[in-house]
Design a protein that fits this description.
The protein contains five helices and no strands. It is mainly alpha-helical and about 120 residues long. Helix 1 runs antiparallel to helix 3 and helix 2 packs antiparallel against helix 3.
């Protein structure tokens, strides 16, 4: 809100992520109903790349790496996807493993992938 004036959470990647997390905490659930379908992918605001990369890394560290039990509307998946759209311009496929995600990210050498890996490796 400091940068934009007011936050239109349903149309803002960061606002949507914050609202989704707050709703999960308030309702004591770990998923966002239709969370991925409602992702505001048309948000074209410019965010600080370092903050987004650090955010993705920290989100990956909280992931349970559920593998085959991965659930698309899991709050962790929704949060990471919001940050991915803001940083990479698109959602990335996630197969339930932070290690697999990082390996694939590194092999694709997308812009900013090195920054995510750097933050993930930091203590």
């Amino acid at each position: 809100e400091g940068a934009c004036g007011t936050c239109e959470k349903e149309q803002c990647l960061v606002g949507y992520a914050q609202q989704s997390l707050l709703n999960c905490l308030k309702n004591n659930v770990t998923y966002v109903e239709n969370g991925m379908d409602r992702l505001p992918v048309n948000d074209l605001k410019i965010y600080r790349e370092e903050d987004l990369a650090a955010g993705i890394a920290n989100i990956l560290k909280t992931c349970r790496s559920c593998g085959e039990n991965h659930y698309e509307n899991c709050i962790i998946n929704v949060l990471r996807s919001c940050y991915e759209v803001a940083l990479f311009g698109e959602e990335r496929e996630y197969e339930g493993s932070a290690f697999s995600y990082l390996t694939k990210l590194q092999s694709e050498e997308k812009t900013h992938s090195g920054l995510v890996l750097e933050y993930y490796s930091a203590k």
